[in-house]
Amino acid sequence: MTAADYFQWWRQAPFATALFQTAMQQTEPSQFVDANAVFKIVTGLTEQQLQQSQAVQFTLRALYFSANTGFYYQVNSHAPEPGYQLVTMHQLPDVAISRQQVPLRGADRLTAVLLELTQRFVGVTAEMLAPLLQQTLQELGQAVAADRVYIFDYDFVLQTCSNTHEWCAPGIMPEIQSLQQVPLAAIPQWVSTHQHGREMYIPDVPSLPDRDALKLILQPQGIKSLLTLPIRDADGVLGFVGFDSVRHYHYYTEQERLLLSVFARVLANLKRQQQRWQRED
């Protein structure tokens, strides 16, 4: 396996990674080989700038500040094989520059939306729920700059899942009609991940292997980056809420993913409330 092949394992990492080819002589510059979507978002470099970059630009410092995200990242590197250098950047969630230095970013806006919506659903009636959910999906999508936000229900009796609610940004094609009764057998890894209470985060869909089952489903929808979080309670997983990025690749910080998991828990409570309403009818 070459270093370039080896890097394919790192493309879906939820942290920034880039591969450089090192010169035989230490005095000669290294050569950029590849980078995952997270690395491009964290650094904010264009493709042309990446092609001209060198590993030393990142490895000379232990911490890297991203103007795009407002966070600091710990920089590490190692040689996967002679002649190559893999650079990784891991977010330090508790180390951010002060709010006086940069304007409020996505996580701050997302926090405000979540605080408001937790109050919004108190005392909600069956008639109010559908339009309220639609409004909430729109606000969350705008807060994290997603192009499509949706809710799916799992049906483990029929072994299918169906899209029940969807919001799309202007110019984004809805997919809800084509995503009914999707066989769970088509997405076993997806289902297993949710059943174990974990998120499904794919920052770079096009880089998935060509025959990957998820890529065959996601790429026709034009999805570049995706995050789905399980909706679950004590009895198991009920469904999931998802966020698609179509126009651009999107990097979700650890803080954003944690905040969105709070919304998934709110949805679990609402689904149980729906079941109680149905029993009362």
UniProtKB/TrEMBL annotation:
Pfam families: GAF. InterPro entries: GAF, GAF-like_dom_sf. Signal peptide: none annotated. The keyword Transferase applies. Keywords: Kinase, Transferase. It comes from the Bacteria. Residues 128-281 form the GAF domain. Transmembrane segments: none annotated. GO terms for molecular function: kinase activity. This is Multi-sensor hybrid histidine kinase. It comes from Alishewanella agri BL06.
